[in-house]
Every structure is written in C-alpha cells, then in structure tokens.
Write a structure and sequence with these properties.
By secondary structure, the protein is α+β, with helices and mostly antiparallel strands. The chain is built from 11 helices and 22 strands. Helix 2 crosses helix 7, helix 4 packs parallel to helix 5 and helix 9 runs antiparallel to helix 10.
Length: 482
C-alpha cells in the first residue's frame, strides 16, 4: 500500500507519498560457491563462510597426505577449497561432513591439575573446540613462578610455523576464564566452587584423550545432510569434495531440483570417475543429464602441501578436484561470459586427450580440460542434451529469474491495481533492459497483468520471454597460403 505521512501540513491537507517509482533491483550474487566435504577440524554440518584459502586452513585444518588408495579415503574439504579458491572464487559456503559409523566424534582433551603425581586432582579440563584429530598435535606447557601468576602456553604446529596461545591467571578460575574467553583452539570446563581459588600446578603436555576419528569415509547420506544445510544459502555453484559423478549424481540432482523449486537455483560441478573416455561414457554419463549439472574430466596435477620436506610434492588428483578448479573459474566469470576456451590455473593434467577422444567426450556432454596455450576448458557445457547445453545460457536465465524475484518482492502487500502493476512492469523493464546493455540478453518480452478476480485475490502474473545471448563457442577459419 502507499506510504502515508500522517502529519497535517494545512487544515485538512495530508501528504501521500507513493514509493513505487523508486523501487529497483539490488545486487544479485552470481559467484557464491557451496562446498561439502570431510576435514580434520571444524564444526560438523554447519555452514562456514570463507573469503580466502587462509581462512579455510584456519577453519578446517590442513589436508592429509594424498594417497588415492587410502582406506578410509583422504580428507576432501580443505583440498577442494584449495582448488576452488585457486580457480578464482571469492566467497565460499563450506560445510564439513563426517561419517560417524556409530562412533562418537571425540575432541582432544587436556587435564589441568593441582599437583603432580598419581594423587593430583583435576581442577578443570581443556577440550578442543571441534572434534577430530587436528588438535592431537597441540602441546601444553604450564609455568608456575613463585611470585607471579601461572602461565599456560598452547603450541599448535602448522606447516608454515607453529602458532602459540598464552594465558595467565592467579588461580584456576582466572586461568580458565582467560582460556574460554580468548582461545581459538580450546575451551575450559566449569570448575567446582572449591577448586576456583586453587593454583594450577601441572597440565598434560599432550592430550589425555585423543580426538577423532575425522569421519573421512563419508558417503552419500552424509553428503545429503550437508546439502540440506546449504539448501537455504545464497549459493550459485555447488561442489562435492572428492566424490565422483557416478557416486554423487543422484543425491546432487535431488538437491538441485528441491532448491530450484524453492527459488534458490544453482548448478553443480562434478568430476568423472576416471580419465578413460570409455569408462566415463559407461559409468558417469548415464548417472544424469541435467542443465544444472557439469561433468569435468580429466584429473589434474597439483602440489601436495602435506608432503613437507619431500623432494617430489606434485601428485595426480582425481577429476573431482578438477571440478573444484572449474567451479572456482566459473565463479570468477559474469553469467553471460562463456567458460569455453577459458584458461584454468593448474600445473598439469593427468591425461592429455587426443582430438578423437576430445570429440568423443564432447559428444557425451563432458566439460573437457586440454592443453593449449596453457590449460583450458575445451567447451563450457552442461550434461544437458537439450536447450541448456551452454553453462552461460543456464546462468543468464537464473540471473534473470533472481532479478525478477528481487524486483517483485517490494510490491508484495501493495495495492493490486493498474497503477501499481505498471510500476512493477517499469521496475522489471529497467532490470531486463540492463541485461540487454550488459549483453546477457538479445531481447525480451514482458507482461504484468491481473484479472478482476486476481486483483481481489491479490494475484499478479508476470510473464516474460527471454532470448539469451549465445556466445561463440568455435570460430571456423579458412586460410589460403600462397
């Protein structure tokens, strides 16, 4: 309804302010990436918003040494985030998942005692802030000078140097309070009233109770739980850490359908099960054909940060990590910019496909990486065999749908008459015209209407037809040299 300033300026005269003409469409997120995977650190099934790979390390810890034959499998989240940020992503919504298998996820613990020896009583317990093995390497040192407060130091070893935290307190209560208030690694348990004034005399140098397991063997049920957490987030691109198309497609497609119904459209980027074109065609391609699904091959070569001090650090990562790299590259592009022939920052590929193999994979709607003036994406396509083959077309349509929602939302609750509908049409016209200027659309048609019955029921129909801009995937050049 119209906004009214209820102040009488002249006797019997009021000012009626109609704000419909001032409504526009605000900013639209186009490159937010959602990632689900396993890690040694961090809260489980909780969204963490990250802006850099350094934040990822602080939140989820370092990844383990790459071993494709490991059982359970390697931890996937931090390594996937490394590739996502390397590809160019700037905002990532990450969720740590874990396979419990009926085993409780334990957090490392240390005891702070009032003395040494077997008879020393525990004053309070320090517990790692999140479950997993990450804190098992932390060492604790307690200094007890005669004329000064006791000092507790926690040392957390990291690949680029150890991190330290130091806390002081005249008694157990002051020390525990300081730890709980400022520590990034541990929390202190509550003290009994009789122990608050006692002076700590010793602490376990290494955890009394080890943390873990990390839940590295997470399966599709844990992935589904992680995706449920991401369902309400404003993400545009989805990656499943370390999981192949053949394994994750059914779970991911269910999530994509549900979020599209809720008006939170997104596309998923998954990796192939192997580099073999024949295996991809028989194993991964049948798993799903969808305009919101991208299948990437082959795998990539990258340095393994966990191989500290080793002469050879480069390892061959499977295609799901290539998918993470591609997802980050998509996030760095405007919706209408094609992924075709775009370079990706990678050290190498695990397989160099021949022209015949490239053609075979493109025919199966596989997004292929190849070497040519660097490493590039051969063609930016989804697994869809219909109208939404190009990733850019899918993203343009999603961008337009989100803009129409944002532009229409402020009108909900206003009068449903011809004047307000005309204002709504003007708002949407302005947004769609901007898409033409940005070369996202070639043209569009728009109609905003309501019958008399719909006016009474508060229903307004927005009907639009979009003609996205089609990028040039290939340029055919015929040269005659004499």
């Amino acid at each position: 309804m119209s906004e009214t300033i209820g102040e009488m300026i002249l006797p019997g005269t009021y000012i009626d302010v109609r704000s419909e003409g001032l409504i526009g469409v605000g900013g639209i997120a186009v490159g937010n990436v959602g990632v689900v995977g396993t890690a040694s650190r961090g809260p489980i099934n909780t969204v963490q918003v990250l802006g850099s790979y350094a934040e990822a390390l602080d939140t989820f810890g370092n990844y383990d040494r790459w071993n494709p034959a490991a059982s359970p499998a390697n931890l996937t989240l931090t390594r996937t985030l490394e590739q996502v940020f390397r590809g160019g992503a700037s905002t990532v919504y990450a969720v740590r998942i874990a396979a419990t298998g009926g085993t409780a996820m334990a957090s490392a613990q240390w005891r702070v005692r009032d003395g040494t020896g077997g008879g020393a009583a525990t004053l309070f317990t320090l517990t790692a802030q999140t479950p997993g093995t990450w804190a098992n390497a932390i060492t604790a040192v307690l200094e007890t000078p005669a004329s000064a407060p006791v000092k507790l130091t926690l040392v957390f070893p990291r690949p680029n140097g150890s991190a330290k935290e130091t806390f002081e307190g005249a008694n157990a209560k002051e020390l525990a309070t300081a730890i709980s208030a400022t520590s990034r690694y541990v929390t202190a348990a509550a003290l009994a009233a009789a122990d608050e004034t006692k002076v700590p005399a010793a602490v376990d140098s290494t955890p009394n109770a080890q943390g873990g397991p990390d839940g590295a063997a997470a399966g599709t049920s844990e992935v589904a739980a992680g995706l449920d957490v991401l369902a309400t987030q404003d993400i545009n691109i989805l990656v499943i850490g370390g999981m192949t198309m053949a394994t994750a497609a059914a779970t991911v497609l269910g999530h994509l359908d549900a979020t599209e119904t809720d008006g939170r459209e997104r596309i998923a980027v998954l990796g192939a099960s192997s580099d073999s074109p024949a295996s991809i065609a028989s194993t991964d391609v049948p798993a799903g054909s969808n305009p919101r699904l991208i299948l990437v091959a082959p795998g990539i070569k990258a340095d393994d940060a966990a191989r500290i001090g080793e002469q050879v650090k480069q390892v061959a990562l499977s295609a799901p990590y290539a998918a993470a790299l591609v997802a980050g590259r998509i996030a760095s592009l405007a919706p209408h910019v094609s992924l075709t022939n775009k370079d990706v920052p990678v050290d190498g590929l695990t397989t160099d496909y021949t022209r015949a193999q490239q053609k075979q994979l493109l025919g199966k709607q596989v997004c292929v990486l190849f070497r040519g003036l660097g490493t590039r994406v051969l063609k930016g396509i989804t697994t869809d065999t219909g109208a939404f083959k190009q990733i850019s077309v899918r993203r343009i349509v999603d961008y337009a749908k989100q803009g129409v929602r944002l532009g229409s939302n402020p009108y909900i609750g206003k009068l449903n008459n011809a004047r307000v509908r005309a204002a709504l049409k003007a708002t949407l016209d302005g947004f769609l015209s901007g898409m033409i200027l940005d070369e996202m659309l070639q043209k569009y048609t728009l109609d905003v209407s309501a019958t008399r019955r719909q006016e009474i029921d508060g229903v307004c129909l927005v009907t639009m037809t979009l003609q996205p801009t089609f990028s040039i995937d290939f340029v055919k050049v015929i040269m005659t040299l004499e």
